[in-house]
What does this fold into?
Amino acid sequence: MTASPDPPLASARQQDDESTNRLGSAVLRGTDTPLVGGYDALLVDLDGVVHLGDQPIPRAVDALRSARAGGLTVAYVTNNAARTPADVARGLTGYGLDVAAADVVTSSVVAARLLADRLPAGAQVLVVGGDGLRAPLVAAGLTPVASADGAVAVVQGWAPEVGWPQLAEATVAVRAGRPWMATNLDRTLPSPRGPLPGNGSMVAALASATGQQPESVGKPKPAMFTGAAAAIGARSPLVVGDRLDTDIAGARAAGYHSLAVLTGVSSAADLLAAGPDERPDYLGRDLDALHARHPAPYLDGDGAHCGAVTVTTRGDVLGEPGGGDGLDGLRAGCALAWAGRLPAERYDDVVRALSLD
Ligand SMILES: [Mg+2]
It folds into this structure.
């Protein structure tokens, strides 16, 4: 790890080019120095990466503190529109992280900034949502309102108080031709009782009533990550996330490298099955992977190899399945699966052999 990002940035790029060329397609990259050394900033998802529900994920806080101590800037990027950046920062500070409100980018913040770019200062924006959405609108110089009368735009983000009266006002405004923006289209929210309706489900109600669809700004839209990078002055950020369809897809859309961790929603089997737009550059069990070396997998006629593990085209796992914390085998499996050389019906067997199920 180093306080000066320049030399490691150059060497990381060289190595990326080598591993990309060797395999002839976009695949997992390798580093022979700790991963964080190749980047000047981290854009970190929250739920499933830093915490699960209200509990911090083991090792996450120490790993992020070490990255900061090593000179990286850290921004937290979340689709969750319900809490204000100050609320989120307070929660993270409670875990022992040094976080200011300006280090937190919610989908509400990005929506408010985009609206402020397009509307006159002080313009009235109808809010379908709560304080997590109203506060960023005010901060962006706009006026949140509760009535369709006089509103020049509609913005919608999840909040527990969203109900029929707000949806009815929004229906009037959208049917009158007002632009409609959604903070995100996540259909569900995780909860201890299983998935519950997320903003995408509430958007679906309004879409059904109006026949219209909103513009969405949340991940996987790249504005979340490009906006966060611009806000902290990052030149070469690494995105860290647990969901392939939002975090990793959004990183690819923004043109940034990404690390997928297995502490949240997406599983080892999901990684094997990932389509080209949802494939990360690096894999980790958890945020300790930021400070680890990542061996690159490579393919040959027999299958794929990484460290001391081989995954064959028949889905057999040979060598040391536990190597690299079990992830060397997953790296090899991903290289094979992403090259179309591992049958999908063997994914579960590979994951089981690696004890990643
Ligand atoms: Mg997450």
